[in-house]
Task: inverse folding
C-alpha cells in the first residue's frame, strides 16, 4: 500500500505567485476552505523578480489615459490575436486591483500630489505603470503574501504537484510530493486553480528560474485541457550577456523608460532605422523628442527604444548578425548618457533603478551611471498557455481553472511590459471567485487510487537504488541542458520550417533519454530527482511550442518565421490549439478567433 | 579558467561533514554557479535553494568561508580560490539537508505580528494621498527579500537560541515597516516589548552589516522602535501627555 498524506479543500490553488495568491485570497473571502501549494518558499515565486511595474489606466500622470486606451494598446501590442474579452476585462479592472494592493499596504512611488506615480513602458501610449523603483514584483508579492497569511489559507510550501487527479473527466484534486522528505501528498478539492507561471527553462538563455518548467501547462494538457498560442514565446530584448554565467538575467525595460538608449558598436541609435507602420504615428523620429517623452512631455512621441519587445528584440538580433554588435554579442544599452541632460543623473539612476545599479555593479563590475551595459535578447515570458473562458478562467476541463502566466489569451502574439502583473491581479481574482462558485455548486469527486499508484510508481522508478538502472543511464541535468540548447537553436527567436522539424525530431530523442534518467540518493530534498520529474513537463511544453510554431506560417509578434517573414491576415484569423489526442499523441488544430464585439472594434478603430 | 576546491556541507538532521569537490571557475562565475556545476556533474542529489540568481528572492543564503552571503551575488573572483572555499548552511536554523535549512519558524513569527490596518480613505476618490518623503523610510524596509541572513547572524538567535522570546532583526524591520507606514493605525508597541523581545537586542549591528539589501536595520528600524517602546511604556511625562493627545 502506498503511503501518502491527504488534505482536503474546497478550492486548491497550485502556485503562489501573484496570480495564485490573489486567487487564494479571493476564494478564501467566500469562507470556503482553500489550500495553496508552491514549489518554493512563500514569497519566492517568480513574481518577486518583476521589476518595471503594473500597468493600469489610473490616469494619475496623464489624464488622457483610460481603459479604452489601455485596451487598444494591449490589442495592438498583441497584434490582434488576443482574446478581446480578456483585454477588455483587464483594462477595465486593473486600476481597482492596484488600489486594492494599496489598501493592503503596498507603497508605490508617488506623484507630486501624493498619488500613485506611473512610468512609461514599451507599447503603452501614456505613462501607465505603477511601480516601486525597479522592484515592483517584490512589493506586489509581499503585499499579497502578508495579507494572504491572515485569510485562513492553508499553505504547503516546497511541495510539487506531479499530476492532476480526475473523476470522469472532472478535475478533483492533485497528487504531488514535499521536497523536504519526498513524501507523497494527495490534495482533494472541488475546484483546482493552476497559477504555475511560465516555461522559460525550456531555453538556455532565460530570465526565468528553475521553477519555470511549464508544469501547469503540462498538467492541464495531460488532463485534457486545450493549450493555445504556444508559438508565442516572448524574448525580452534586454538580458545581460556578459559575463557568461549571468547571461539571460533581465535588464528591466524601465531603463529605457527612464531615458536609456540602444546603440550599436558604431554608436548609432539603430532603433530609429526601422519603425513599423503600425506605430509610426506614435513614435518620435528624432532624439530630442524621444528624450522629452521620457521626461514626461505629454506632446512628445515615444522613442523607438520603447517599441514593443518583439520588434526591439529582432532589431538587436539584426545588428548582431550584421556585425554591428558589442564585444560579447549584444548591443549597448546606455543610461549614463542622461548626465548630459540631468545634472543629478547619477543620483537619479540610482534612485529609479537601484536593483539594476546593484546587479551590474555586483555581477558584471559595471557602474551603469558611468558606462553602457551590454544586452541581448533573453527568453522571458510565454503568451501561450491554458485556454480559458475569459470571464471565469475555467478551462475546457470541468473544475480546472487557470490564471496568470500559465493561462492564454490576454496578450495575443506579444505581451506589453507591465501587463503581466495586472493580469495576475485581475484574472487571479476572477479565477478565485469562479472556482469558489464552482466548488460551492459541486460535491467532492472520487479519487482514483489506481492513478495515484501508477504516478507514484513512475516517480520512484528514477532512483538508481531501484536496481533497474538501464545500461545507458542518463543524468537529468544533462538531458535538461541538452533540451535547452536544442530549443534555443532550433525553436528560438528566428524560426524556419526545417529547424522546427529538426526540433520536433530532437524532442523525440530527448524523450527517449528522459526515460533512461536515473538519480542517486534518497527521496529527501533531492534536486536530481526533482529535475528528473520536471523533465516530463519540459518535454511536453517544448513539443507544444515547436508544433504550434510549425503550424503558424506567418510572422506575428513574438513568432518570427524566416521562411514566412510577413504577416498574413488569413493566419491571423485563427488561434492554434494543441491538445492531447485519443492515442496520446499531441494534436494541433486551428480555431477561428471570436469576432471582436462591435463597440470594442469601434474603440480600436477610433484610436488608430 | 582556474580549478578551485569547494568544501560543501553534506548531511541531514542527524549527521554531516564537509566534502571536497573540485570544479572549473570561469570569468564572472558566482558561488551559486559553482555549486550548480558541482551538483550537475558530481553531486546530483545536493540540496540547495535558489530562484532568481539575481539577488531578488532571498533564497540562496549560506555561509561562504564563514560569512553569511547570498550565493548568487557572491562572485568567485572576490574570494581567494587558492585555498578551499567552504560553503555551509545557515546556523541559526535547523538543517534539513546539505545547504538547506528549515526556515519555517520565520513564517510562523510573521503570522503572529498584527497585520497592516489602514485608516479610512480620506481623499475624494476613495483612496489616500501620501507624500514620497513620508514613505521613503518605509520603502527602505520594504526592500527586504527575506533572505534571513540577519536572523542568521544575530547572536540572540544564533548563540542563545531565543527563538521563543525574540523575533529577530528581520521582523523588527517588518514591524517598523508597519509602524511607520503613513496609513497604518494598529498599535504593535506592546507586542514589540513583550512577546517580540525587542529588549534583547543590544545593538551590535551585526544584522545591518550582512543585509544584502543594505537596509540600515539597527539605526533606522530597531532603534526608532525601541524609542517608541520607551516612550509608550517607560516615560511618565510622555504618558501623561498622551492622555491629552490621543495617538493618531
Ligand atoms: C526578471 C523578470 C522581470 C519581470 N518584470 C515584469 C514587470 O515589470 N511587469 C510585469 O507585468 N511583468 C513582469 N515580468 C513577468 C511577470 O513577473 C510574470 O509573468 C508573473 O510574475 C508570473 O506570475 P504567476 O503568478 O503567473 O506565476 P509565478 O509568480 O511564477 O508563480 C508560479 C508559482 O507556481 C508554483 N508552481 C509551479 N509549478 C508547480 C508545481 N508543479 N507544483 C506546485 N507549485 C508549482 C511556483 O512554485 C510558484 O509559486 C517579469 C518577469 C521576470 C522573469
Ligand atoms: S543589532 Fe540587535 S538584532 Fe541586530 S544582530 Fe545585534 S542584537 Fe541582533
Ligand atoms: S532585513 Fe536584510 S538581511 Fe534581513 S532578511 Fe531582509 S534582506 Fe535579508
Ligand atoms: S537566488 Fe534569489 S537571491 Fe540568490
Result:
Amino acid at each position: 500500500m502506498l503511503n501518502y498524506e491527504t488534505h482536503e479543500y474546497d478550492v486548491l490553488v497550485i502556485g503562489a505567485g501573484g496570480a495564485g495568491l490573489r486567487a487564494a485570497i479571493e476564494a478564501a473571502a467566500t469562507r470556503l476552505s482553500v489550500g495553496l501549494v508552491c514549489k518554493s518558499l512563500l514569497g519566492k515565486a517568480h513574481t518577486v523578480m518583476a521589476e518595471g511595474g503594473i500597468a493600469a489606466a489610473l490616469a494619475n500622470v496623464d489624464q488622457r489615459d483610460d481603459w479604452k486606451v489601455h485596451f487598444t494598446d494591449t490589442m495592438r501590442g498583441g497584434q490582434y490575436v488576443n482574446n478581446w474579452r480578456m483585454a477588455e476585462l483587464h483594462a477595465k479592472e486593473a486600476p481597482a486591483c492596484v488600489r486594492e494592493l494599496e489598501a493592503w499596504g503596498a507603497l508605490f512611488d508617488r506623484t507630486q500630489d501624493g498619488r500613485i506615480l506611473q512610468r512609461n513602458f514599451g507599447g503603452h501610449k501614456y505613462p501607465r505603470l505603477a511601480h516601486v523603483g525597479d522592484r515592483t514584483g517584490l512589493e506586489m508579492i509581499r503585499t499579497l503574501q502578508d495579507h494572504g497569511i491572515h485569510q485562513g489559507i492553508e499553505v504547503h510550501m516546497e511541495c510539487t504537484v506531479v499530476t492532476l487527479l480526475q473523476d470522469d473527466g472532472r478535475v478533483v484534486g492533485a497528487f504531488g510530493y514535499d521536497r523536504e522528505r519526498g513524501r507523497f501528498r494527495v490534495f482533494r478539492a472541488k475546484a483546482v486553480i493552476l497559477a504555475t507561471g511560465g516555461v522559460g527553462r525550456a531555453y538556455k538563455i532565460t530570465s526565468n528560474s528553475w521553477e519555470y518548467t511549464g508544469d501547469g501547462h503540462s498538467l492541464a494538457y495531460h488532463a485534457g485541457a486545450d493549450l493555445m498560442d504556444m508559438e508565442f514565446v516572448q524574448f525580452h530584448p534586454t538580458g545581460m550577456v556578459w559575463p557568461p554565467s549571468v547571461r539571460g538575467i533581465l535588464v528591466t525595460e524601465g531603463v529605457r523608460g527612464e531615458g536609456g538608449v540602444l546603440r550599436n558598436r558604431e554608436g548609432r541609435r539603430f532603433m530609429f532605422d526601422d519603425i513599423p507602420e503600425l506605430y509610426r504615428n506614435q513614435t518620435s523620429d528624432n532624439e530630442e523628442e524621444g528624450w522629452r517623452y521620457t521626461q514626461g512631455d505629454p506632446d512628445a512621441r515615444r522613442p523607438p527604444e520603447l517599441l514593443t519587445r518583439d520588434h526591439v528584440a529582432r532589431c538587436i538580433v539584426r545588428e548582431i548578425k550584421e556585425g554591428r554588435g558589442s564585444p560579447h554579442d549584444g548591443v549597448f544599452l546606455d543610461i549614463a548618457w542622461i548626465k548630459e541632460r540631468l545634472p543629478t543623473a547619477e543620483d537619479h539612476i540610482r534612485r529609479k533603478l537601484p536593483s539594476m545599479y546593484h546587479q551590474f555593479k555586483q555581477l558584471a563590475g559595471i557602474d551603469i551611471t558611468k558606462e553602457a551595459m551590454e544586452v541581448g535578447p533573453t527568453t522571458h515570458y510565454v503568451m501561450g498557455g491554458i485556454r480559458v473562458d475569459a470571464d471565469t478562467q475555467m478551462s475546457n476541463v470541468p473544475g480546472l481553472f487557470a490564471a496568470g502566466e500559465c493561462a492564454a489569451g490576454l496578450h495575443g502574439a506579444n505581451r506589453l511590459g507591465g501587463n503581466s502583473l495586472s493580469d495576475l491581479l485581475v484574472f487571479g481574482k476572477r479565477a478565485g471567485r469562479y472556482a469558489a462558485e464552482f466548488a460551492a455548486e459541486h460535491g467532492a469527486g472520487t479519487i482514483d487510487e489506481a492513478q495515484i499508484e501508477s504516478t507514484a510508481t513512475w516517480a520512484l522508478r528514477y532512483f538508481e537504488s531501484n536496481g533497474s538502472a538501464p545500461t545507458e543511464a542518463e543524468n537529468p541535468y544533462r538531458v535538461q541542458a541538452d533540451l535547452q540548447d536544442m530549443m534555443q537553436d532550433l525553436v528560438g527567436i528566428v524560426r524556419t520550417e526545417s529547424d522546427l522539424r529538426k526540433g520536433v525530431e530532437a524532442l523525440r530523442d530527448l524523450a527517449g533519454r528522459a526515460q533512461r534518467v536515473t538519480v542517486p540518493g534518497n527521496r529527501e530534498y533531492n534536486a536530481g530527482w526533482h529535475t528528473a520529474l520536471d523533465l516530463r513537463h519540459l518535454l511536453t511544453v517544448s513539443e507544444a511550442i515547436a508544433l504550434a510554431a510549425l503550424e503558424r506560417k506567418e510572422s506575428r509578434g513574438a513568432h518570427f518565421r524566416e521562411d514566412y517573414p510577413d504577416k498574413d491576415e488569413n493566419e491571423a484569423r485563427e488561434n492554434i490549439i494543441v491538445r492531447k489526442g485519443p492515442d496520446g499523441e499531441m494534436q494541433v488544430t486551428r480555431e477561428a478567433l471570436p469576432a471582436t464585439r462591435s463597440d470594442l472594434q469601434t474603440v480600436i478603430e477610433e484610436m488608430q | 579558467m582556474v580549478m578551485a576546491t569547494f568544501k560543501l556541507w553534506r548531511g541531514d538532521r542527524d549527521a554531516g561533514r564537509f566534502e571536497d569537490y573540485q570544479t572549473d571557475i570561469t570569468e564572472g562565475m558566482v558561488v551559486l554557479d559553482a555549486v550548480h556545476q558541482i551538483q550537475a556533474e558530481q553531486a546530483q542529489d545536493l540540496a540547495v535553494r535558489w530562484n532568481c540568481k539575481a539577488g531578488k528572492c532571498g533564497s540562496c543564503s549560506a555561509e561562504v568561508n564563514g560569512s553569511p552571503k547570498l550565493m548568487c551575488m557572491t562572485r568567485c573572483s572576490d574570494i581567494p580560490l587558492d585555498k578551499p572555499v567552504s560553503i555551509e548552511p545557515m546556523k541559526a536554523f535547523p538543517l534539513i539537508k546539505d545547504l538547506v535549512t528549515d526556515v519555517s519558524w520565520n513564517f510562523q513569527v510573521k503570522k503572529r505580528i498584527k497585520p497592516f490596518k489602514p485608516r479610512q480613505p480620506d481623499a475624494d476618490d476613495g483612496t489616500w494621498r501620501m507624500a514620497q518623503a513620508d514613505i521613503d523610510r518605509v520603502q527602505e524596509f520594504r526592500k527586504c527579500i527575506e533572505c534571513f541572513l540577519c536572523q542568521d547572524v544575530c547572536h540572540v538567535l544564533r548563540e542563545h537560541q531565543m527563538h521563543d522570546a525574540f523575533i529577530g532583526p528581520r521582523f523588527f524591520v517588518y514591524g517598523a515597516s508597519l509602524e511607520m507606514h503613513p496609513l497604518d493605525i494598529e498599535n504593535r508597541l506592546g507586542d514589540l516589548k513583550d512577546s517580540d523581545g525587542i529588549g534583547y537586542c543590544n545593538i551590535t549591528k551585526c544584522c545591518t552589516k550582512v543585509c544584502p539589501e543594505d537596509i540600515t536595520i539597527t539605526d533606522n528600524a530597531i532603534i526608532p522602535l525601541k524609542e517608541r517602546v520607551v516612550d509608550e511604556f517607560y516615560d511618565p511625562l510622555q504618558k501623561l501627555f498622551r492622555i491629552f493627545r490621543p495617538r493618531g
Notes: Chain A has three domains: 5-234+380-441, 240-379, 449-580.
